[in-house]
Write a structure and sequence with these properties.
4 helices, 55% strand, 297 residues, alpha+beta, Porin, elongated
Length: 297
């Protein structure tokens, strides 16, 4: 589509501009402005490249037009963020999956998740929750619940400090309940349209009630959040949280999300959890594969 658009525009641009001209013709200026306002980097680069090639001597004016519009849009975004109320500018995803088996066995499974984010001028709010529950013949055979809230203070476009609170319940790992409070520093190692990768770390306090004993501990928390847009409709993600202490733990979730239509997608995710010192009789490693429908808003 972009190639067709440029092919149609090129004759007009060639006729409207003289190689020796130092000032853009109004028609060429309008085309450059229109491209700059789309915010599409590929389209801007293509249009600006042709405009400079066909309007020698006006390169500075072309760059000034693009820079002015970019500054105008950035100022508008900052003003919108500064004026946002408590319930404004939230975005995120909700996911849901379930199954039911009857007859020789009576098995019900339920999976749900929610991830919300609000970007402000200087702070960023993150909310997440997930639940996986399975009942077989009236007995709960699986129960995993995780919820968290994180507040980021932005130092720059890439660096931030964070404070985070988490609640966890995982019967398979022998955890009746666990609370975690952590603070630290985060940094976006990669922040491109196709790939985003941020890491963070800092001290944490954990209060855990296992099935047979309780433990309060100090830990070092490390986190990694990776997103790779394989295409316009398919995302690959990998999220990791690691706690290093007397009895450390790790949680890693890898997911592939493919858009079905509109805001609705299908997701397959694989989760692995590791507890260094689980209660007696339990394995250190648990895994969970989940299939859900995801709605983005």
């Amino acid at each position: 589509m972009l190639k067709t658009c440029l092919t149609a525009l090129l004759p007009g641009m060639l006729l409207a501009a003289s190689p020796a001209a130092a000032q853009l013709a109004p028609s060429v200026k309008a085309i450059v402005e229109a491209a700059a306002r789309t915010g599409d980097a590929a389209k801007i680069d293509a249009v600006v490249g042709i405009a400079k090639e066909t309007n020698k001597g006006a390169e500075g004016e072309i760059d000034a037009i693009v820079a002015a519009i970019a500054a105008e849009q950035a100022a508008a975004r900052e003003a919108k963020l500064a004026d946002a109320g408590l319930l404004d500018n939230w975005s995120g995803q909700g996911e849901l999956g379930a199954s039911l088996a009857t007859g020789n066995s009576d098995t019900k499974t339920f999976a749900a998740g929610l991830a919300l984010q609000k970007d402000g001028l200087n702070v960023r709010h993150k909310l997440n929750a997930a639940a996986d529950i399975q009942k077989s013949n009236g007995i709960t055979s699986q129960e995993r619940i995780l919820a968290g809230y994180q507040l980021d203070w932005k130092f720059s476009d890439r660096a931030y400090a964070f404070g985070r609170f988490e609640y966890e319940r995982n019967r398979q790992a022998g955890i009746n309940r666990r609370f975690v409070e952590s603070v630290g520093i985060g940094y976006k190692l990669i922040d491109s349209p196709a790939v985003k990768w941020s890491v963070e770390g800092g001290p944490a306090l954990r209060q855990t009630r296992f099935v047979d004993y309780s433990e309060n501990s100090f830990a070092v928390r490390g986190g990694s959040n990776f997103l790779w847009k394989l295409s316009d409709s398919t995302d690959f993600t990998n999220d990791t949280a690691l706690f290093i202490e007397g009895s450390g733990s790790l949680t890693n979730t890898t997911a592939l999300t493919a858009r079905i239509f509109g805001a609705l997608s299908a997701r397959v995710a694989f989760n692995i959890t590791w507890e260094e010192e689980p209660p007696i009789g339990l394995e250190k490693i648990d895994t969970l594969t989940r299939f859900t429908l995801v709605y983005a808003f």
